[in-house]
Write a structure and sequence with these properties.
- There is one protein chain.
- This protein is an alpha+beta fold and 367 residues long.
- It is 38% helix and 20% strand.
- The protein folds into 2 domains: 85 residues; 257 residues, 2-Layer Sandwich (BirA Bifunctional Protein, domain 2).
- Strands 1, 5, 6, 7, 8, 9, 10 and 11 form an 8-stranded mixed beta sheet that branches.
- The longest helix has 40 residues.
- The radius of gyration is 34 Å and the shape is elongated.
- The termini are far apart.
Length: 367
């Protein structure tokens, strides 16, 4: 069989000079197609004596491997070049304003987040954050929730095994509330403390008013003189500002939370019937949040002396606030990524919430 080196050089030169994928494929077919030059050489092996057949077959396999490798490398190069040219042609100047008909919308949850931060920010609260993956001490133990507390059951809580321990008590949890941020704040900040902790929380639940992932905001005030009266005044000012109703009715009902004592639930006045819920009118009541004075055991778990310090805490659902304020009937639609829903309930991007410029600014509601 004639020297294959010249054939290899010829094919590799053709591969290297192929200017696009179509021409490269033509080179491949000419070399390794049914009637390709390498294929024809392979067919002629049958007429050779055994020893020559083995030697020639080995050389042809090396030739074929070299050609296949060169073709693959050239193909990758040409595909990358084509992609870069396409990206250059389709580049978008993201600094240009969007056309009105395709303008994006701010999600109601993001809007409520801004409103809550604006209201409590004017009251002097700072925003505190913490991890979504928590240890059981910060999520349960430090909040006065013993090991047999119903909230710690596996059907309610997402547990994550600890790779360094086989002990279930060492397992991590996807936080069930933002209360762990209160403990971490007490551990790292000396009183006086005045923070709110908005963020994502997770529980094993799913229906029209519950989802596995939802949003909460909790507040914490710690000093030496704060009382339940301060708590009531703070929350009353909040609901007045949030719902933008000056004469909104509120009431506080005794309740129980393991991390506060005494504990209460706050209701707001409303009128509700089969087809309508009207905030601030009527003789009906709607529960909106839980609150209370921080339990001495929680203060101690946070590294503070309960004989010296006291304070209050509260918590509410951001998604629930959005449903109430903007008339959204089903919580599950918040997370379905439906652009039609977002266009209806969303807000224009430049409609920022502030206490001076207005919170909801009715012109911003995209309806």
């Amino acid at each position: 069989m004639e020297n294959l080196q010249d054939l290899q050089n010829e094919i590799l030169t053709a591969v290297a000079s192929a200017s696009d994928l179509k021409k490269l494929d033509e080179v491949r077919v000419a070399a390794m197609g049914k009637k390709g030059s390498i294929t024809e050489k392979m067919k002629s092996l049958g007429s050779l004596p055994l020893e020559e057949k083995i030697a020639a077959g080995k050389e042809l396999n090396l030739l074929k491997t070299a050609v296949e490798k060169a073709i693959e490398e050239r193909k990758t190069y040409l595909e990358t070049e084509e992609l870069n040219r396409r990206l250059a042609r389709e580049s978008i100047d993201v600094t240009l304003p969007a056309r009105p008909e395709i303008q994006g919308r701010i999600h109601p949850v993001s809007k409520i987040y801004e409103e809550v931060v604006a209201i409590f920010g004017q009251m002097g609260f700072e925003v505190a954050e913490g991890p979504d993956i928590e240890d059981q001490f910060h999520n349960f133990n430090a909040l006065n929730m013993p090991a047999d507390h119903p909230a710690r059951q596996m059907q309610d809580t997402f547990y994550i095994p600890n790779p360094d321990s086989d002990n279930f008590d060492d397992s991590f949890v996807v936080r069930t509330h933002t209360s762990p941020v209160q403990i971490r704040t007490m551990e790292n900040k000396k009183p006086p403390i005045r923070v709110i902790a908005p963020g994502r929380t997770y529980r094993s639940d799913y229906d029209a008013t519950h989802t596995p992932m939802f949003h909460q905001v909790e507040g914490l005030v710690i000093d030496k003189t704060t009382t339940m009266a301060h708590l009531k005044g703070c929350l009353y000012d909040f609901v007045r500002a949030f719902f933008e109703i000056d004469d909104i009715k509120v009431r506080y009902r005794p309740s129980y939370f393991p991390f506060t004592e005494p504990s209460a639930e706050m209701d707001i006045g409303c009128r509700k019937n089969k087809d309508e819920l009207k905030i601030g009118e009527g003789d009906d009541w709607l529960e909106i949040l839980g609150c209370g004075m921080v339990h001495p055991k929680v203060l101690a778990a946070g590294g503070l002396d309960p004989d010296e310090y006291q304070g209050f805490a509260f918590g509410m659902g951001i998604d629930r606030l959005a449903m109430l304020k903007y008339g959204i009937p089903d919580l599950r639609t918040f997370f379905e990524s439906d652009l039609r829903w977002l266009k209806h309930y969303g807000f224009v991007p430049l409609d920022e919430s502030s206490m001076t410029g207005g919170l909801s600014n009715n012109g911003g509601l995209a309806r």
